[in-house]
Each structure stands twice: as C-alpha cells, then as structure tokens.
Amino acid sequence: MLEYRLHSLAPEQIHLLGHDERTPSHVHEQGHLVYPASGVLSIVTEDGSWIAPPNRAAWIPAGSFHQHRAHGATDMRIVFMADAAAGLLPAHPSVLAVTPLAREATLALTSDVPRTAESRERLRRVIIDDLTAAPEQPLHLPEPRDERLRALTHLVEQEMEDPATLEQLGRRIGAGERTLSRLFQQTTGMSFRQWRIQLRIHRALLLLTDGLSVVDTATACGWANPSAFIDAFTALVGQTPGRYQRSLRGASSPLPETPPR
Predict the structure, then answer these.
(1) How many CB atoms lie within 10 A of CB 44?
(2) Measuring CA to CA, which of 9, 91, 150, 206 is 20 to 30 A from 170?
(3) Same domain membership, residue 180 and residue 57
(4) Entry pTM
(5) Domain identity same for 110 and 145
(6) What three-state secondary structure class fits 140?
(7) Do residues 113 and 60 both lie within one domain?
(8) Structural domain of residue 98, as residue ranges?
(9) InterPro entries, alphabetically (predicted)?
(10) Could you tell me if residue 197 is inside a domain?
(11) Is the residue at 254 inside a domain?
C-alpha cells in the first residue's frame, strides 16, 4: 500500500538522485512530466511501473499516487502542467517519446535562467506539441495483486537468464498452469507471455542504458538468440536496440551545471 502524501504545488523542479534512491510515495494536485536528463527512472504506482530512459518522459496525471526510483545517478526534471495542457496528454500514467527539441525545452524550462511567465508558457507549449505528436510508449509493467502471482513473478525476475515455462513455475509455487494463466489475464490484462516480455524489455532498457551490448543484453534477459530479442524490443519500443542505444548518446550529453532547488 502506498503512503499517501499531498505535496503543495511547486514550479519546475530538479532532483538529483543516487543509484537505487527512491522518493517517498506522494501525489500532486497538477499533472506533471518527469524527465531523466541523465540516468533512468522507474515510476511506481499501485497498478504497476513505468520506465523512462533519457529519451523518454513519464507523464503523471493529477491525483496519481506514485514514487520514483533511480537506476544509476539520475538528474530528474519535473515540469507541471495546467489543466488545459494536461488535457492533451493521456488520462493515465504513461511514457512518452522525447525529441531533441522537447529535451532542450525541458532543460531550458528547468534551468536557473530567469524567464518571464510568457516565456515559460511558450516552452511548455513546445514540450506538449512534441510529446503529443508521438504515440504513447508501451512501457507499462502491471503489478499482480494475487499472492500466487507475486511469488511467480518474483521467480521470473530472479531467474531471467534461464526462463522456465508457466507449468514449471507453477509446480514450484504450488499452483496449476491454467489457474495462473487465468489469473494473469484477469489481474493484469495481459497473458503471462506478454507480461514476461514487458519485464524483459524493462530490464533490457536498463542494461542497454548501462552500455551492455545488444547480444549480451539479449542473453541476460532470457532470449535464446539476438534476433528474437531485436524483434520483441522493436515491436514495443519502436526502434531497434542498437538505434535506441545510439539515441542515448545524444540524450546523455553533458548538461549545464544547475544546483538542486
């Protein structure tokens, strides 16, 4: 159960997080974008998690309880949106592609350079226009609530390099394959196979961001061969692992020094 805290409204924010550092669970009165200018962020809710590397931003609608988790040293930028702008974005937490233009506008908006209210609003409009032009990224990993599924998913996460079948996993936790299959569909809206692919892609995004090769990432995430990994990654992320990794080099370019607020 998440701890409910109501944060007062704030202007754009910068938070520097260490590896595996987590924020308290909280909620904001306005929707906001969360952009990792460096590092990778997980956004965790009671319904699951979303992952945002430096070429993605997470959108958190108003009133959504959540917490952040940093993977690697992470420079987290937060941009709040008025209701009219928020209405152009999804009504649920999501991950959106960040273009170079949207990245620069976000960095400018969260910098310490003094700007008029009109200038800040123009930067927000640039960000919104670019984010809404790209499709939502399917990087949501639902969190199973059933205790049997929690035990099963724990095994999957711990043994990702050596994936077992649902039947084999079921024997280890004392549940039948049909029962687990039905529960997965009912509680997550996904089949077990779809959920495990999402989990693998989440892990792959982290490993690729850390600089692991495509081949080694495929092995670490349980794919029998790199081609199958590339196909699955491309279907979900919209680009090949190699192209995604190359895009991170531009997104992770040195940032101007801006102290936390």
Answers:
(1) 22
(2) 206
(3) no
(4) 0.73
(5) no
(6) strand
(7) yes
(8) 6-140
(9) Homeodomain-like_sf, HTH_AraC, RmlC-like_jellyroll, RmlC_Cupin_sf
(10) yes
(11) no
